[in-house]
């Protein structure tokens, strides 16, 4: 009997020390690792700690340096890096080792924390870098402080983590054209993305509102194309620039700036995918060199005023913002541009845009008609395809592979093109069916510039994308060869993103949802647990002074007219366990007000439906004072 008891005790201890898969409250990692087991006890980081480096590899040395620096700022400890040529690791130290472990691949890592030591190992330095991000997330949130935090015990829970990414392509796109972001802001962007294990920055470098990269021999691109008239107010509804108005808003990266950004990114295991968006989205290029257009005229860099109209059959341009596919000078121009872009960016791909080209000016162009005759092109889609295929040849002649948005499918894909699917997943599915590589960036999951709450309270955007919808992002559609899906990408467009704080607000927490979708195993994703972990990341961001959106705590409003002709409103929250309290009497609701239980019929003469969410008796959302007029309007426009 005693033996049985001892055995039972032993088994119990085993399960306590090496607990089962853990989503324990003390560990709130994003993205969630492939496997994680928590144990007993904690590692204590003290002022005597060293980062022990067990390899001579220069990249690993750099990671050790990053770790030492990161740990020393908030702790105030020195935590120097020390090269150690032994297999054993010193008590109280953090060891970094390069090993050979087939499960980990190029970016995976293994992290073992116990009360004596921390051992981080990986096949490649990139794995050490991602393991370091995990290690930092395991430390108390105060580690994110930029100044010394005294009287803090720096404990790391005992864990064994084995982790590696689901996809090699884990990208964030940053539109630096609609609004310019400085070199230092791009570096900060990189610093923030790597915390969630993104490894690719897609820079949208050119568009109608600005050309952002110096090209030698084409000085007007940055003398003219990088600058525009400054506008506040509603994008798409501002005044067109006056020729006499100063064009001083904007900027560009010199080639030295680009080299510096590329190196900064490379040091952090981030590649940069440059995008030169052609043939449309090219007003800045055409303003610089009007001879590149099919339509003679004088052009100005767009300042946010409307110049295209969108219908169900696509878009019609009011001003021609395209490069002329029938003009040989355009291909010479692009050869110069892509020669230099290829030299500046070591990444194997170049993105050539290809999206949203209005064809109405091409239809009127004699040169395009002549091109169609000569090349036997039957319609404007085939003209576009002819252009993209020529661009692919240019890109390939520079030793690079070409990517384009999914419109490049129209009229026939270029032979080796990779497709970035943004208008949903359909373009990606179609491209994969033709055997092409695909990156999934569907706007209904990954466009993180969209509103993440009710349009009445969010900064304006074209549509809404809630956090839980982003979290549902699954890059591999049913019935598609998974080997053709390289990965996924979140896109931060900047029509409305006028500054970095605004960008952070849009990116976080949705950037975390997409990071988890491209790094973690699909079956590990769990929405309520993700919300819990996001909330922990919020606390860290508060310390680090990074902006994020708390809109996940607010309800969405769905308005309709019921069978009796009365205005009905349904409220829904995406975060579990929230209570919504409301008022119709113009006073501010709190937890003593009526709680939302079922759809509301709006009382006669009410002016506002005021709502606020609570959790466990504490307010957590913002008060929203929704005008009844706004709800009535929604029933008319059927937006709900
Ligand atoms: C896009 O959003 N036009 C790619």
Features:
Chitobiase, domain 2, alpha/beta, 18 helices, 640 residues, Immunoglobulin-like, TIM Barrel
How would you explain this protein's 3D organization?
This protein has 640 residues and is an alpha/beta fold. It folds into 3 domains: 2-163, 2-Layer Sandwich (Chitobiase, domain 2); 169-551, Glycosidases (TIM Barrel); 554-639, Sandwich (Immunoglobulin-like). Helix content is 30%, strand content 21%. It has 18 helices and 28 strands. The longest helix has 18 residues, at 58-75. It is globular. The protein starts with a helix and ends with a helix. Residues 355-356, 405, 422 line the site of acetamide.
What about the largest sheet?
8 strands, parallel, barrel
Might you state the CATH topology name of the largest domain?
TIM Barrel
Class computed from helices, strands and strand pairing: alpha/beta
**How large, in whole angstroms, is the Cα Rg?**
27 Å
Q: Please name the CATH architecture of the largest domain.
A: Alpha-Beta Barrel
Distinct small molecules: acetamide
**Percent range for β-strand residues:** 15-25%
CATH homologous superfamily placement of the largest domain: Glycosidases
Query: What is the residue-averaged pLDDT?
Result: 94
Q: Estimate the helix proportion, in percent.
A: 25-40%
The total tally of domains equals 3
